[in-house]
Design brief:
This protein is an alpha/beta fold. It has helices at about 20-30, 45, 50-55, 65-70, 70-80, 95-100, 105-115, 125-130, 135-145, 170-180, 215-225, 255-265, 310-320, 335-345, 385-405; strands at about 10-15, 35-40, 60, 85-90, 120-125, 150, 155, 160-165, 190-195, 200, 210, 230-235, 245-250, 270-275, 280-285, 300-305, 325-330, 350-355, 365-370, 370-375, 380, 385. It starts with 7 loop residues before the first strand and ends in an 8-residue tail after the last helix. It binds cytidine-5'-triphosphate.
């Protein structure tokens, strides 16, 4: 279950070739459990049919005839009032101009005027039209009124030229919609720092000591924190994952770099979640030149890296920040005993313990089976579930821990 589950999303589609991407967007949102009502403008009907959207949403699709039908006078009010968010994608220059000037000459613009929910706009148009001062002024007006803009992106345009004006891809738009839906969530105004992925400790210029962490659990935590309204900084080792929309990502390589950035980012943070698999040892001396195989077998002397959570704990005992600290315990033996010991020695509020020997969960997998242990003695054993579901539960517990401290949010949303 994600933040999209059960949400009422009103999707306004206007006349642009990007209409075909809006069908994909409607499909993705529906598959994620949202209830998607679509309004097609007259020009959108030149590009795509109501049947396309009806087929992917399973719901009646609204067109101009619904404005003038026998119940037209209540349709636009009802659609606008029931929605959790109004998404206009693609939004043409013409529709932006109408919205900026409060025109209400079709079902979509009438509905937008009547809607009390947040409005997310994904423009799609030729680069020249987008850059035109009139369009820019309209965008500014709408932003000042609280509309959120997603894109446009740079790329191939229908004119055959490259430029700014392309509607964002549906997957990215889903991220923007999640962000808007979560805006006033339980972590609104809170700064959450998450680490993810494995670190790399250089042996020589081409070789490293690393580990098998995929980063999936950390990235899922960053997404769940955005869904809860937090301002999220994701400190990431090298992983092949997309950064969730709304997350500020800082790439790091070594444990020492990660330590530096974590200490820096958590001076004023509400929460730190250390999901990264940090190397415990590194070569005491990284070779400046590539070690050649003709040479004798190299002996690599190791030294300990800094324990980041220990360092954060020491700082926290003086400053009080971060307010809540959560760690992970990757164990192959004595799961609970080892996790509990890390919970206390690293002075954590919460530890997420997982058995890395499990075949169906853990490193690299999309699923995890974890036990959550709290410093106050609370223990919650979770069944096998997706890393996104684990992330949601961890974020919920963290927000309860913050609530219990009764501290004010220190950052603006
Ligand atoms: N961690 C850390 N700094 C390190 C190593 C680990 O902050 N140098 C953090 C991890 O991000 C995790 C927690 O400590 O949140 C526990 O990591 P884990 O690898 O399970 O334990 P270690 O402390 O490294 O101990 P061991 O490897 O001996 O189990």
């Amino acid at each position: 279950m994600t933040i999209l589950e059960g949400k009422k999303i009103l999707l306004g589609v206007t006349g642009s070739i990007a209409c075909y991407k809006a069908a994909d967007l409607a499909s993705r949102l529906t598959q994620a459990g949202a209830v998607v009502d679509v309004i097609l403008t007259h020009s959108a009907l030149e590009f795509i049919t109501p049947l396309t959207f009806q087929s992917v949403t399973g719901r009646h699709v609204y067109t101009e005839s619904d404005l003038w039908g026998s119940s037209g006078h209540v349709t636009h009010i009802g659609l606008g009032h029931q929605a959790d968010v109004l998404v206009i994608a693609p939004a043409t220059a013409n529709t932006l101009a109408k919205l900026a000037h409060g025109l209400a000459d079709n079902l979509l613009t009438v509905t937008a005027l009547a809607a009390g929910c947040p409005v997310l706009i994904a423009p799609a148009m030729d680069g020249g039209m987008y850059r035109h001062p009139a369009t820019q002024a309209n965008i500014k007006t709408l932003q000042e009124r609280g509309c959120v803009f997603a894109g446009p992106g740079v790329g191939h345009l229908a004119s055959g030229l490259r430029g700014e004006g392309r509607m964002l891809e549906p997957l990215e738009l889903v991220g923007h919609i999640r962000r808007v839906l979560g805006m006033h969530g339980p972590l609104a105004g809170r700064k959450v720092v998450v680490t993810a992925g494995g670190t790399q400790e250089p042996i020589d210029p081409v070789r490293v000591i690393s580990n098998l962490s995929s980063g999936k659990q950390g990235y899922a935590l960053a997404q769940a924190a955005v869904d809860a309204g937090a301002q999220v900084c994701l400190i990431s080792g090298a992983v092949a994952l997309e950064t969730p929309v709304g997350v500020t990502r800082v790439d790091v390589r070594t444990a020492a770099e990660m330590a530096r950035v974590v200490l820096d980012e958590t001076t004023n943070a509400d929460v730190l979640i250390m999901a990264a698999a940090v190397a415990d040892f590194r070569p005491a001396q990284a070779g400046e030149k590539k070690i050649k195989k003709e040479a004798d077998l190299p002996a690599i002397r190791l030294e300990k890296t800094v324990d980041i959570l220990q360092a954060v704990g020491t700082r926290r005992s003086e400053s009080g920040f971060p307010r809540v600290v959560a760690g992970f315990a990757a164990e192959s033996d004595d799961l609970l005993e080892n996790a509990r010991s890390k919970l206390f020695t690293k002075k954590l509020d919460l530890i997420v313990a997982n058995d890395i020997t499990a075949q169906d969960a853990g490193f690299g997998s999309d699923n995890n089976r974890v036990v959550l242990l709290q410093a106050d003695g609370g223990q919650q054993e979770l069944p096998l579930m997706s890393k996104s579901e684990v992330a949601e539960i961890v974020i919920r517990q963290i927000s309860h821990l913050l609530d219990a401290q009764n501290t004010p949010a220190i950052s603006s949303p």
